[in-house]
User: What shape does this take?
Amino acid sequence: MVIFAKDEDAIVLTSDFDFDLPEGLIAQHPLPERSDSRMMVLRRDAGTIEHAHIGDLPGILASGDLLVVNNTRVIPARLFGERVDTGGRVELLLVERVDEEGCCWEAMYKASGRAREGLELRFADGDLKGTIREKRDGGRVLVRFESRRPLLEVLETHGVPPLPPYIRRDPGNDLYRADDVVRYQTVYAEHAGAVAAPTAGLHFSSELIERCEQTGIGMAQLTLHVGPGTFKPVKADRVVDHQMEPEAYCIDEAAAEAIHAVDRAQNRIVAVGSTSVRTLETVAVERGQIEPCEGRSALFIYPPYQFRAVDAMLTNFHLPKSTLIMMVAALAGKEYVLDAYRQAVDEKYRFYSYGDCMLIL
Assistant: This one.
């Protein structure tokens, strides 16, 4: 079921979330250390904007607060190969597994020739073969793979990190690929299945997590496998006409109990990233409370959404007119957020996946 977080009487326009962003502020590479990132702090009760660093987080949050992170693991989901019939170059971006064995995947297809049912593809020096079983909308295909090794094992050797389109890479540059393999992944990534990183979590080093724990700040983990829909532009004039792509999530018993304990103590749930927000709010909307469960989230959060589970949020700086900045505006207020973004541009904060972050309290 697709859930829209909206007020039926409100007309929210995509253009309401536009701002000027110089291209030079889009971070192309991670900083040398994860904890080097700058952090803008928005305090909603005071209406203030402060400039700090992610390393200041243990001193800004309170003992008893709970960080809720997404432990999905990004797979090297971009494959380069060729058509068997013509030898023409083919690029696939694996989107989602559609069978239990892991042989059939929905993928985004890019090649000089059109896709067709029955088309045979070759990857990994012939170690991996694929056959297009079905053409789907939006340039997507259903591919069945064959290999002597498990597909994920082949991807670890021959796949490329599925960086977002605004990060430019030369596919033949192995140095950048090696760096992205490590840095386009959180240090607590565990469950493979995402084709985009939960980028707010990229700021956490093991040392920073340890410092948070030492000051009494807890951490709970959930899983939402981020899909390419996170980069899908909002083309509709009215926000209500945009639809989110469903993504699979899981909350286990340990995470649910940790969240309930924080609620009972009246401390804060601090969601790390939009994917953690969406998972928590989806479960709260559909079930009335956070409990162990699995499902698919298509929740679209934008003003004037009323949050049910999340008290605070750590997030990166997002694209103009994106669903992500709409979520941030729902939590902090549109004008407040747009003013913060204007300050971020003036102060030359780094934007998007490898960029700096914002803490909304």
Observations:
- Residues 1-9 have pLDDT under 50 and may be disordered.
- The chain is about 20% helix and 30% strand.
- The first strand starts at residue 4 and ends at 5.
